Amino acid sequence: MKFESLRIAGLRCLDGVAVTPSPGINVFVGSNGAGKTSVLEAAYLLSHGRSFRAGSRDVLLKRGATSLSVFAEVRSADGRVRRIGLGRDGSRWQARIDGDQAASLGALVQECAVVCFEPGSHDLIAGASDERRRFVDWGLFHVEHEFMGRWRRYQRALKQRNALLRAGGAAVDDASLAPWEAELASAGEDMTAYRRTYLDRLLPHVRSFMNNVLPELGVFSVRYRPGWDETEDLAATLVSRRLRDMARGHTTVGPHRADFSITFEHAPLREHLSRGQEKLCALACLLGQASLHAEIRGEWPVVCLDDLASELDRTHQEWVVAQLLGRDVQVFVTGTEIPSALVERPVTVFHVEQGAVTALL
């Protein structure tokens, strides 16, 4: 997938911005605070429905603006071009595909694939479990379309069970809870099977990159924890947890509590990794996910590298560039100047200043 055009209005400091990126490596240069990262954020927003920065979608709105919009034309490997957009007017968000309102935000996400390595990417390794669940589920949304249906069923049943648990009293009995628990168990077991299969397929792709960036740590592996004790099936676990869940007012077991942990032969605990190693580990995971996406879909997602020169040393910058140059992949890179690893490479450069983006010859 490649962006043929990207139009941004009312996003942080960007307003009235139109970018026509090249199909290869695009570098956005400018001073700190000029809006470089917000260009990448716009692309990511179309692919994930949220920013990679902390905070809600509400903080994306430019100060003083009442609306926000990001529109793009994206071309698939088969030559098909789709027009996609996400906008906010007042408090309402709306996704559009080819001029029509999208059935859901998930439908938009499935049309646009972007992976991003940025200063907060180490949270994939060191952060909360929801970061890792989103990582796996985003990959599944793109390569296993049946997964989204299971995910929606599970979220709906989870919401209903939690509402009953909070109501308490007579509302919490077998007749009211059993149908939602059966739905939770059915959709949840399916979700777990999809996630396990995805991680099994992902692991060799991640290992191929990990062996290059962290060879000193030995063999890399992943352990998935589904969110409940699998010595008992999920349906039985939900029943046995009713009283505890009612006291807490929410469902404490299930795929919404799932997580995976990474281990290395010579660093069995996450705490054994330095911050730099966490970043390299996250980078390998993101590139591995992009590689698996390409294997299954026949095309690479767009790869965004925010502030590359600050996040990686010269050796690893050159390694990343070498990995991407040999593939048919569109890349967005930001920096206060062209990263040294790209100075002698064929790149398209854009200058970003005070929210304006200008292509440089």
From TrEMBL:
Keywords: ATP-binding, Cytoplasm, DNA damage, DNA repair, DNA replication, DNA-binding, Nucleotide-binding, SOS response. The keyword Oxidoreductase does not apply. The keyword Iron does not apply. ATP binds at G30, S31, N32, G33, A34, G35, K36, T37. It comes from the Bacteria. Residues 4-355 form the RecF/RecN/SMC N-terminal domain. InterPro entries: DNA-binding_RecF, DNA-binding_RecF_CS, P-loop_NTPase, RecF/RecN/SMC_N, RecF_2. Pfam families: SMC_N. It is found in: Cytoplasm. NCBIfam families: recf (TIGR00611). Belongs to the RecF family. The RecF protein is involved in DNA metabolism; it is required for DNA replication and normal SOS inducibility. RecF binds preferentially to single-stranded, linear DNA. It also seems to bind ATP. PANTHER family: DNA REPLICATION AND REPAIR PROTEIN RECF (PTHR32182:SF0). This is DNA replication and repair protein RecF. It comes from Luteibacter flocculans. The gene is recF.
